[in-house]
Write a structure and sequence with these properties.
11 strands, three-stranded mixed β-sheet, alpha/beta, 36 helices, single chain, 788 residues
Length: 788
């Protein structure tokens, strides 16, 4: 399916060199990703040099790199002083002794000094071509065959006796029966000579050739052969092969994308590299090859040609069933294929699993399909996405649309579709030309992906669906989902581009609330792109317009956005702002107004968020006062009281900042209650960490004591009292993570590492993947800071 096609000899002429031998003249260098296989070849070559026949088989799917390995082994054999005979069997051309004739034709091209051996080789070549020796015309056919086998074996023996011989055969599964018998005869009669055999085979086709299986079984019983199965490349091996093919370093994300496209098949990896390079879709930037952002999945011409070649011999019924199955997906079942054909109006008899299995059998034999009995009887998988795409492309446009439409009907036959199938439904509806359904399914699919925190999937759905979304409301829903996904990914520049179209749609729809919402989205994008001044400007404008229009919810959202821009931190992510860097007074006013509006509207999440941020503002004021105290050197009496052993709590209670501290604590206590009431565990965690800073921040600055960070754990009892027993594990994990984050902020690496590792283990136990990811990343950052 993917291996480079060879041009074999026919019955009348013999080329001086076989296709594999010609390829060996062109290809040099090592084989990427196959060190174990090359090591095995070196070992078997060493065995052969001791005067014992040794063989090695490379077994794997088309395109897996068998031919390239044979080329590399030929170089190893040449370095060891072996005569090299390299041939390949042909998939289409058949004839008696065809492969054997190619072998002896290749030997004829070798520099053989012994005239007697050269004459023996010539005699064997003539006998294989059908020219009879004088005086032997009356021998029976079986005796003539035995005579030819004797002559060939003797010639090989005499040749190998003069110099070690390496016989490399590609695509052994296509060899003719007579040649396979000659090889068996030769192996039995020359096992005590320095001969090395390397055979490349496709197991799924080899199983259909009894004589070839017998050959390998014979060698196995005699202990002469090592059978190696080649696997597809890992992502790292793909990157190495791409680097070799392109002649330089390859961008990691680009290598990963091409690895996914090629699915680790080496031949397709190389063809993709050549195709992308030829089309200018992969370019060298600062010494690194990078795939263009608009690169699409291309089928290189060499890959398509080889797939066409293998599919050309399939019966028409098989081609038809294969094409229809391709629309179902990479993996499909006979049950679904039968149901699809029934909806398309095919005869009931043609839709039975038995009939369909018979129709698909030739595709399985050709290696285009793979049966999956371990999954479920009647399940199949295309050997590669390129095969699936090729099969679907053979359908006419009307037939393809009809199949997509039938699949939509199948998936919606049970009523409300499964949320997991919405994305698939949208794709099929779009391909069927049912634009209204496609837009509806796409909107629902994008919302489901947002709920599952899958922003990349949202972007894929939106790009696919925008072409079908003709109504302004559908486009608004899709572009809004796209904006939320880009916000998750923190891609502010792209957000601003998408919001421009959203703003135009809001103007066309004359929806004032949507207009304000889009303005706030722009403010958030400015804030995330480190342009807080423009974020403040836009937020204040929205707040003014919302107040004039009496739109309380828009004003609430504007106040929250304004507070984040003035405090220069997202909700829940600020703990101790510096007054010289942020606008504490402006942020405090915005969050206080947001708290009032949230109370009026009964918006508990907004109320909890605003309340927590008011606590942050008070902590900023507390910090400002403390810094001023140190600047005026008024902290020395405090240090003197501490040195005399007086506890911190009564000292702090006697200071002028005590009311500010109490106010901050009251805000945090209230925020914890509200977050717990709405079930926002992250909000609770963030508020508890902030409360811990109020309690121990000054202590840490005065004493420089990292041990007080451990007292964050003590506050866990407060959190646990607000949770049900079933949430204790989550509470513990969040508190451990809180201690980890706080320790990182205060640059206490040993504590950050220990608490991070504990949080990671707890997150794995409770199955919180997002917390597990966050803790793993946090620990990695600490390790990087420590240079580990």
């Amino acid at each position: 399916m993917y291996d480079s096609p060879g041009v074999s000899t026919d019955s009348f002429t013999m080329p001086p060199l076989s296709p594999l031998a010609l390829q060996m003249r062109r290809v040099t260098g090592s084989v990427v990703g196959r060190p174990a296989e090359l090591a095995a070849a070196e070992q078997e070559l060493a065995v052969a040099r001791t005067g014992q026949l040794a063989a090695l088989t490379f077994e794997g799917e088309p395109g897996i790199g068998k031919t390239r390995l044979l080329v590399a082994i030929s170089e190893l054999a040449a370095a060891e002083g072996f005569l090299q005979v390299a041939v390949t069997a042909d998939e289409e051309i058949r004839g008696p002794f065809l492969l054997a004739r190619a072998i002896f034709s290749c030997i004829n091209g070798l520099p053989i000094d012994d005239v007697t051996v050269q004459e023996e080789i010539n005699e064997v070549a003539e006998a294989l071509a059908g020219r009879q020796e004088p005086g032997l015309e009356r021998l029976a056919l079986d005796q003539k065959l035995l005579r030819v086998l004797d002559m060939a074996a003797m010639a090989i023996r005499n040749l190998a006796a003069r110099q070690p011989l390496a016989l490399l055969i590609d695509d052994l599964q296509w060899a003719d029966i007579d040649s396979l018998r000659l090889l068996r005869y030769m192996i039995r009669s020359a096992s005590d000579l320095p001969i090395f055999l390397a055979l490349a085979v496709r197991p799924e086709e080899m199983a259909l050739v009894t004589e070839a299986e017998t050959l390998l079984a014979d060698m196995g019983r005699m202990g002469m052969v090592r059978r190696l199965k080649l696997q597809r490349f890992s992502q790292m091996e793909t990157a190495e092969l791409l680097s070799q093919a392109l002649g330089g370093a390859v961008n990691k994300s680009s290598a990963a994308a091409m690895h996914v496209q090629a699915e680790g098949v080496p031949f397709i990896i190389e063809e993709l590299a050549r195709t992308y390079r030829g089309a200018g879709m992969v370019q060298e930037i600062d010494g690194v090859w990078t795939l263009a952002k608009n690169a699409e999945r291309l089928v290189p011409s060499a890959v398509r040609t080889l797939i066409e070649r293998r599919a050309a011999r399939l019966p028409d019924a098989t081609k038809s069933a294969l094409a229809e199955a391709a629309i179902l997906g990479r993996t499909f079942s006979l049950k679904d294929l039968g149901a699809l054909k029934e909806r398309l109006g095919d005869d009931e008899e043609c839709c039975s699993p038995t009939q369909l299995a018979e129709e698909l059998a030739p595709a399985v034999k050709a290696g285009l399909l793979i049966e999956l009995p371990e999954a479920s009887p009647g399940d199949y998988r295309f050997g590669h996405d390129q095969v699936k795409d090729f099969a679907s492309d053979t359908l006419t446009a009307p037939r393809r649309r009809a199949i997509h439409s039938a699949i939509v009907d199948m998936l919606t036959a049970g009523g409300e579709p499964d949320p997991a199938s919405l994305s698939l439904l949208a794709a099929h509806a779009l391909a069927a030309g049912e634009t209204e359904k496609a837009a509806s399914f796409s909107v629902d699919a994008a919302k489901a992906a947002l709920s599952a925190h899958a922003p990349e999937e949202v972007l894929r759905i939106v790009v696919q669906a925008l072409a079908a979304a003709s109504t302004p409301l559908d486009r608004v829903a899709l572009l809004s989902a796209q904006d939320e996904a880009l916000e998750m990914l923190r891609r502010s520049t792209e957000r601003l581009e998408g919001l421009a179209e959203l703003a135009a749609l809001a103007l066309a729809l004359r929806d004032p609330h949507l207009e304000l919402e889009i303005m706030l989205r722009r403010a958030a994008a400015f804030r995330m792109s480190d342009d807080p001044d423009r974020a403040v400007q836009v937020s204040r404008e929205v707040r003014r317009l919302a107040k004039e229009r009496g739109d309380g919810r828009a004003e609430l959202a504007a106040c929250l956005e304004l507070g984040q821009a003035l405090l220069r931190a997202p909700l829940g992510e600020s703990f101790s702002p510096t007054a010289s860097e942020v606008d504490l007074e402006g942020a405090g006013e915005a969050y206080e107004r947001a708290r009032e509006l949230a109370e009026e509207l009964g918006d508990l999440p907004a109320l909890a968020a605003a309340t927590r941020e008011l606590g942050v503002v008070e902590v900023g004021r507390l910090r400002e006062s403390f810094v001023e105290t140190v600047r005026l050197k008024e902290h020395m009496p405090i240090m003197h009281r501490i040195a005399q052993g007086e506890p911190m709590d009564p000292i702090l209670a006697s200071l002028a900042i005590a009311p500010v501290r109490a106010k901050a604590e009251a805000y945090y206590e209230r925020a914890i209650e509200l977050f717990d009431k709405i079930g926002d565990r992250r909000g609770v965690m963030s508020s508890i960490i902030a409360l811990a800073y109020v309690n121990f921040g000054i202590d840490i600055h005065f004493l420089g004591s990292a041990k007080r960070i451990e007292e964050i754990r003590r506050l866990a009892s407060r959190m646990k009292s607000l949770t049900r027993q079933s949430e204790m594990g989550m509470a513990e994990a969040q508190m451990l993570y809180g201690a980890h984050v706080f320790a990182r902020d205060k640059v206490v690496p040993d504590l950050a590492l220990s608490r991070g590792e504990e949080a990671y283990q707890q997150a794995r136990i409770i199955g919180d993947r997002s917390l597990e990811f966050a803790t793993a990343g946090g620990v990695a950052l600490v390790d990087l800071e420590l240079g580990e």
